[in-house]
Amino acid sequence: MWLPLLLLACHSAPADRPEDAPGLENTPSPAAPAQDFHQRQLQQLAEAHRARDWRRMQQILSLARSGATPEQRKGYDVYASLMRGLRAVDEQFVLRGFTTLAGAEKREFEMDAKLELALVLEPKSGHEMLLRAKGEQGARTLITVRASIEDFRIDGTSTRFEEPIVRGLAGDVILRAGKPLQLPLQEPAVPGPEVLVRVMRFSGAMRPAGLVVDGEEAMTVQLPLTPFELRRFPKGFASVRKNPSLILSNALVDPRRYLGHIFVASWFLSESGSEVQQSKAIGQLIEVLRVGAPDTHRCVLACLARLAGEQAPKARDREAWLSWWALRQR
């Protein structure tokens, strides 16, 4: 964004001024100190804007502007608009991101649950915002969303794909508390039964062609959208999340039959299990790797890698894991 570079005009003395004539002194203009003061204030505003410190900008802008040149007053007006833009982004939205039919707080769903994803911009109570669809010189409000989706399969493999979404506005929109801007987003098709976990991450930004907050122009390059993550698990996953250690122990009685339970229980243990629970789970999985059927090994190897994290061996085959575990038991 262009910001005005407000420099004082330098007026040189006429070449024929009698510098040494008696009774003549080089007296500075009374306006010069005031202009110097305002120039320093504008420089401080530029620094505060680079730091995204709208409170500091607000403090500087509250000072008197007497003695400022017309150009300096224009600079103050620009920084006032920029300050309002930063303040709006920082503290005047209830929601500036993504949500589902169940609300922004719920982040985990069964694989076939209906989500109804949406991008929502809603100001806090007491604020009104006008979002212009078009601005000067053909500028248009654009909303760019990046949807990243990763599917994890029972054999330990995963697939990631991204879907960029760019949307505009059909017309100007007025936003109030209880009257947000809502743009529906469509999730790709629900995956097949071979996928046990789907992780969806949403991020993005809006580039407004014009924004008015409470009747005053608020200049901003973009409104960043709060990142949002959703996850899908198999039907009935909630009982596994409640006690993943117990579910894992029960499932390991018949690993070939309950591979899905082993995979999901290990996932939850890696996130919220205690160190003791994780160590126990690794030992149980190592035993399956040692004596279990070969067709369970790929799933077990993936579970071990997730549970061990950074402590996992560099090589990830069966023999490497068995050697790694044996060394840890000494």
Describe the 3D structure.
There is one protein chain. The chain has 330 residues and is α+β, with helices and mostly antiparallel strands. It has 3 domains: 32-91; 93-233; 237-328. The chain has 9 helices and 12 strands. The strands form 3 sheets. Strands 2-12-9-5-6 form a 5-stranded mixed sheet. A hairpin with a 4-residue loop joins strand 5 and strand 6 (158-168). The longest helix has 22 residues, at 70-91. The chain is elongated. The termini are far apart. 26% of the residues are buried.
Short description:
This protein is α+β, with helices and mostly antiparallel strands. The protein has 9 helices and 12 strands.
List the keywords.
330 residues; alpha+beta; 4-stranded antiparallel sheet; elongated; disordered N terminus
Number of domains: 3
Principal-axis shape equals elongated
Note the quaternary state here. single chain
Number of strands: 12
Mean pLDDT: 88
Unreliable sequence segments: 1-27
Question: Structural class from helices and strands?
Answer: alpha+beta
**Helix amount:** 25-40%
**Intertermini distance:** 62 Å
Strands side by side in the biggest sheet:
2-12-9-5-6
Largest sheet: 5 strands, mixed
Q: Helix tally?
A: 9
Radius of gyration: 31 Å
Strand composition percent? 25-35%
Query: Would you list the SSEs in sequence order as H and E?
Result: HHHEEEEEEEEEEEEHHHHHH
